[in-house]
Amino acid sequence: MPEMNLGDVVIHYEEAGQGPLALVFCHGLFAQMADDFVREFDFWREHFGRVITWHHRGMGQSSKAAKYSLPLYALDMARLINGLGIERVVAVGPLFGGIVVQQFALDYPSKCAALILDSTSSELNVRISEEYYRRSQAQRDSPNVGAGDPESYVAAHRTVAGLREHPLTPRLKNITCPVLIVSGVGQSVNRRDVGAAMLSLHLPNNRLQLFEDSGPGVYRHQAQQFHALVLEFCQEHGIIAG
Known about the structure:
eight-stranded mixed sheet; 9 helices
């Protein structure tokens, strides 16, 4: 059970391989996503040399913390990869993880070789924001989040909801590394489609790929196509060898 003590929090992580470049998976609202991603390690290590996944502060096997916020989630990621001697990352962020990855890229641009944003957004409308605020209260009233601190899950849901009042959209122009945006397309336009369009409109160096019949988390629902697309994208930008 690898852990890194960052002073104010102890972060649980898993890794395979070595090298200064790593593909780093940043999970969504539930740490189980990170645990499931470990099954992908052999594939990604073959192409990137090193692959890492980790639990956000207060979630899964990472310790509780006195404070929770989007900048702190991003700071934990920065301190973790620095502690592991990683120079640059290809950061994969589905859903809430994609919001953390955007913040990470804004705060630590020199660490980013590329971003893979999956089924996420930089802002929310009123209806979806209110839905996440309601979910945040449910986390506190009847926590059913498995391992971890319910307050972290409350904070994470409110971070998503807060994109209504504090969108990342105006700052996206400052993310200059290559960004691959993927999202599922259902029978009707939904928040993921709108979020992907918003990201594509404002990120200066991006590619948008929509997947039919995929739910949230293309990396899970269309795994083989996702694998091929990420490799093609990173080869195109000279991040990994073709």
